[in-house]
Amino acid sequence: MMPLPSEVSLPSEAIPTDTVVLRPPRPGDTDDLLAAANDALVSRYVTALPAPFTSEDAQRWVTAGARSVIADPHTDRLLGAAGLHPVSEADGAARIGCWVAPWGRGQGVGAAALGALTGWANTHGFDRVELLTEPGNATGQRMAVRAGLTYEGVRRGAGRGRNGKRHDLVAWARLAGDPPGPSPRRLPDLPGGELTDGVVLIRPLVAGDTGDMFALMSLPESVRTTVPPVVPDPVGVRRRCEQSQGEWIAGERARMTIRDAATGTFAGNIGLHWTGPGMDELLVGYALARPYRGRGYATRATKLVARWALTEVGAPRLLSGTAPENVASQRVLERAGFQREGYERSRLPGADGGRIDNVSFGLLPRDLLD
Q: Where is the N-acetyltransferase domain (predicted)?
């Protein structure tokens, strides 16, 4: 490994790429810096910056703060900022981060900056580079994937907000020997952002779905079929919706809404998650709002999601299960092509610490129905 610089925090020289240039900040950056730092997305997720961010903060940042900005290679306009500091010089590990101004988004700016900074770190003796993102920061997580960083898990209490309270952060890392290009996605995005058969529409769960999800999950029949059966907490439901995109990008689970294709009205939810470490099986679960039951929506949604999971995700097998008395849900699975595989006694946690039986179903690629 190359000798580590004695006081490395950021490159002091410009690092050019085809998309961006990383360079030291200049006094002319202050107006753009002021506007960008007060953007709602930057202010929410970059808690190291004061909020609100003032002109004095911008001057101080330029003269004594970060030593690198992301700039347009043609106009030299500030597009964001990037940072790097050693985590452990003895181990050759560094931590990086970046944020992108509103006018720089949607152009691959963040991924290019992270890639350039990671490459610079590797050539300066850091053979491991990590990035920590807020669980709800799907934009930052997409940048991490495109820059070739790999999801490693959630670090409990690794972050501290402006209020002084600790919160979890999602860890991503890239080693010097990792292959070039974006890191692989275990759960790709839906093609075109949605699935539809003309009657039902499947879209990813987002923060704006919190109200509909809380209403659905609070129904007595929903509580009864939840594992374990507990009344939902409003804060927990909001967090689930806010962090759903991040979980999807990380490859942990895919939470989706079921909608009326004609009106876009919320009709229910459906989701997939891996059954356990080292397993390639995806578990399917769903629930419908009362006005949409008995109309074939659950079967249609399950068919759409199952076909995507088996053909696009590449899962070799899907699983689902119901309580023995939930005959309606069993019929949905059978109509979607699932086959009943067994009866598992005391398989699932029930109410008040008890256990309930489970009727298990499975679907293989060859079982797909037209």
A: 20-176, 200-370
